[in-house]
Amino acid sequence: MAPSPERIARGAFDPDLTFAELVALLDALLAEALGEDARAAALRYLDANLPDAEVALLLEWPGEWFGNRWFEEAALSPEEIAGYALERCERQLPGQPLEDD
């Protein structure tokens, strides 16, 4: 389940954000299941919670985000997007899978 609309509307850092909520929100964005205003609010929320991760760029132009044209046509899953964004902003979330070392 994605964060509540009230939490998203605040557009502020959310210390209670979980990995599952992040994935659900990214899934809704990828599925274009949000209206224009809700999408804009979700992207503001992600900017506040994943600073410097440039999630909107990762969603729309992954090749540019990675600096590699190969990724332009990549179909990244919400879990993969969450992992890359969290790695870039160096944030850990409850429920986040551990990386294989």
Structure description:
The chain is an all-alpha fold and 101 residues long. It has one domain. Helix content is 54%, strand content 0%. The longest helix has 14 residues.
Would you kindly provide a brief summary of this structure?
With 101 residues, the chain is mainly alpha-helical. The protein is 54% helix and 0% strand. The protein has one domain (5-89).
Q: Give the amount of beta strand, in percent.
A: under 5%
Number of strands: 0
- Cα shape: globular
Report the mean per-residue pLDDT as an integer: 92
Q: Into which percent range does the helicity of residues fall?
A: 40-55%
Q: Using only CA atoms, what is the Rg?
A: 13 Å
State the end-to-end distance. 29 Å
* Count of DSSP H/I helices: 6
Unreliable spans: none
**SSE string, helices as H and strands as E:** HHHHHH
How many separate domains make up the residues?
Answer: 1
User: How many strands, what sense, and barrel or not for the largest sheet?
Assistant: none
Q: Structural class from helices and strands?
A: mainly alpha
